[in-house]
TrEMBL record, chains A, B:
UniProt superkingdom: Bacteria
Occurrences of domain MoaB/Mog (ranges): 9-171
Pfam families reported for this sequence: FLAD1_M, MoCF_biosynth
CDD domains tied to this protein: cinA
Listed InterPro entries: CinA, FLAD1_M, MoaB/Mog-like_dom_sf, MoaB/Mog_dom
Protein name: Molybdenum cofactor synthesis domain-containing protein
Species of the source: Sphingobium jiangsuense
Length: 251, 251
């Protein structure tokens, strides 16, 4: 049984990430959300607030994947150039989206009114639809397979909620974690042979050093519940047999 | 005065980042460290544990920038394919580095000996030098302008320490933060005109919502201390004059 795999890419836009000032939280958040939708995040690029860099990344990635997400650069200030860059990448003009304008007019009615700078947040590539933002007025934007999200993680979280269930995907990747107080280098062979014995499974190995001891968490992944359970049980049994008690659920 | 700007790119290698399992910490850590070295991180790509994807990213980025860093995929297990992929990208064979072998033999002397799987961590693209790892034996690898670092953040931190001061760079970017309880959209014009008044400065705007109020932190950046101080003082004065008291150091 071969199955269509749905893939996505993410472009994180922002000098604040590249300068080290801000710790990115959107990669992990969007990755986890996509996985639940049955879509796999396959590549991420972090680019500066430079139009050419955004255009290049968007155009390379939107044609390679089913979906392309961007985060950052959609506020009202001079360094917010995401909408212009993506419109250029798509070859369409930037227009004021009437629904976005109405949302912003409503949001700012009791917050000092819709100024010219605030109206910037109603701009969108021509042909876009909106992604609701329940926190701060300015909506996200969808154009074809391109999804333009906020940079502030909790606002993006709200936008993802609004999109939940609306994107076509395949079977989500299921996973099971097993932990063990063992040095990764001692069981490398065991991992290979276990993975090979269970077609359709994948085992990741994540070593750590804690409480003065080395240990490892293993994440077994599969889109099939049956393959996942068989592989995880086999891995635990092989670790136990080797004298390294397996801790189901991880350490 | 025009000045040579030194740039770097980073390739983060790891399914665990793309699946959302692990929150990346290396982007911010390497970005901050590079900045102190006078080198600007200009692009980051996160790619899966897939040789073709690593080769493509490494070859696109190592020629565009003065330095290329990678993190992840240098452990002893089957999913650790970074060394092979980078050797292929560089067009050189993989060899066992004698110094790395000696380091590992020493490290594992009282930890069960240097097995075949552990010896995998002594493999390097031919012509490499080593980057000391004071935490766990297996060294990082340097080949020309390519720096191959660990995935575990504290191990990479130790490798960065070992490299401090050894990479040629330019003037580091200096920054000053100013905070204000104001909606970003109210002062967007003020930011543009302040930045324009101080050539060689850049102002980033980072809005937040805290304690029930909206606020913004502004980061002024410049490689010149004089330009930085003048721009930051001017920004604070303009905010004060607008009725929004500026909080030097940020909120």
């Amino acid at each position: 049984m071969s199955e269509r795999i749905w893939t996505a890419a993410l472009v994180v836009i922002g000098d604040e990430i590249l300068s080290g000032r801000t710790q990115d939280r959107n990669i992990a958040q969007i990755a986890s959300w996509l996985n639940v939708q049955g879509i796999r995040l396959r590549e991420v690029r972090v680019v500066p607030d430079v139009e050419d860099a955004i255009v290049e990344a968007v155009n390379q990635l939107r044609t390679r994947h089913d979906y392309l997400f961007t985060t950052g650069g959609i506020g009202p200030t001079h360094d917010d150039i995401t909408v212009d860059a993506i419109a250029r990448a798509l070859g369409v003009p930037v227009v004021v989206h009437p629904d976005a304008q109405a949302i912003l007019a409503d949001y700012y009615a009791e917050r000092g009114g819709l100024t010219e700078m605030r109206l910037r947040m109603a701009r969108a590539p021509e042909g876009s639809s909106l992604i609701p933002n329940r926190f701060s007025g300015a909506p996200g934007i969808r154009h074809g397979n391109v999804f333009i999200m906020a940079g502030v993680p909790h606002i993006t979280a709200g936008m993802l909620d609004a999109l939940t269930g609306s994107l076509e995907g395949g079977a989500p990747v299921l996973s099971e974690q097993i932990g063990c107080w063992v040095a990764e280098s001692e069981i490398a062979d065991l991992l290979v042979s276990t993975e090979h014995a269970h077609e359709g499974s994948q085992i990741g190995s994540y070593p750590f050093f804690r409480e003065g001891r080395v240990g490892c968490n293993f994440v077994v992944r599969s889109t099939s519940r049956q393959v996942l359970d068989a592989c995880a049980a086999d891995l635990a049994a092989r670790l136990d047999a080797g004298g390294w008690p397996a801790i189901v659920g991880g350490i």
